[in-house]
Amino acid sequence: MAEKKKIMELKSITKEFFKNKALDDVSIHVFENEILAICGENGAGKSTLMKIVSGAYAHKEYSGEIYVDGEQMHFEKPLDSGMAGIAMIYQELSMHLDSSIAENLFLGEWPGRRGVINDRKMWEKTRECLQPVGLEDMNPRMVLRNLSASQQQLVAIARALRKNPKILLLDEPTSPLTINESERLFAILKKLKANGVSSILITHKMDEIFENADRIYVIRDGKCVAEHNVDETDRDEIVEEMVGRKIDNYYPKEEVEIGDVVFEVKNVTVPHPFMKNKNIVENVSFSLRKGEILGIAGLVGAGRSELVGGIYGKYPRSGGQIFLNGQEIHIRTPEDALRHGIALLTEDRRADGIISDLSIRDNIVLASLKKFCRHGVMNDKSQNEETEKIFNRLNIKANSISVPAFSLSGGNQQKMVIGKWLMRDPSIIIMDEPTRGVDVGAKREIYMIMTDLVKRGFSIVIISSELPEIVSMADRVLVISGGKITGTLEKGDISQKTIMRLAV
After folding, report:
1. Do residues 366 and 373 touch, judged by C-beta distance below 8 A?
2. Fewer C-beta neighbours within 10 Å, C or N terminus of the chain?
3. What is the 3-state secondary structure (H, E, C) of 423-445?
4. What's the CA gap between 71 and 87, in Å, rounded?
């Protein structure tokens, strides 16, 4: 058998932040025509490694060597990495939302002559670029902001593929994608693989790895601890190597006595944010009981986030009533919701859940400042004491509450957001994609927090695109399609198959 060709090698890569080693002597190699998965907990160093390969960190900012096709590379900036045939698709979308699809694809490389842009040619080329990701019918002049999150991600992938890379780096590429869109993405990667393009995939979704990858590297605490061929390992072994311990139960749900109805929504309607005379949520009604975890499932774009955003006062409603403990309440703003004991963890914690430059303490007390203020003076001692209680209760992994939020892993940032709302002492918590972009160990900790909360009498609404999460953690499930409820499933009837049948 002919020996596989190494298209890229990373040798002894070490990167420090404030004297802490994010990467410690990491060496990996990538073969031609393969999909390589890199696994690890949040904060293990995966994204840092990809930023080094993509040129986001200049070669003087780390030690170690990078070889592409046997030639040593010194990347000063992402453009250098691109010139070497490497394209990066980041977890956080890096696009110009108020520019058109075509402008995003050809930014800085406009087709034309003598400084005059040939719009017609750019639109034709845009349609060609969108064809591999299934968006060829999209108008190239459409402003990116008007696309769904999943469509924006597919445009980002099309932009990366436009330059015909030989190595594609993907950091959590399917986070905003539907099941069908994810399948389309992996079909693209397999087609690229057949044409000589290698991909490095970072994902927390084990099914994606075992269905699509050829090899796996496991990184823990900045070190490469294992390498496997996919057909020679299994999920349990990979998870144990990631977290350094064996996990027997991924979904630690406990049976909790469910009480009376505490929250009720009747005929809520939310107008579409961009299309006049169209509703994105229409006449939706449901109830929530004390101690219950109520799941809301459906495909991306079905109206799940808009429903809870309308209830919470984040989006305007054009109709409907909300009842708390049998009494009608009026919620026009998020502050109204909080005053009634209703909290919302939004699906994008970085956009509207945390302030990255503030400390853990400042983020946790941010929604409760009145609680610590008397006569215009903030009580720092009380803030510290209350934050420490939540910090310890939620097992946030950091040296102290004064650590800045940006230094935390995704899972610990999410626990910090939960802590912020627990400081307000709500009775109802709405969690929109609470484990998106979170590793398997942190997911389990968040599930344990949810279980502890309902045991204490809280009620939880959880929206999730991960069906095993909904099936395992929810007591009841509402399925939404096209802005309307298409079914309500009781505990014994909840299954992935049933949910998908109702969702489509």
Report:
1. no
2. N
3. CCCCCEEEEECCCCCCCHHHHHH
4. 18
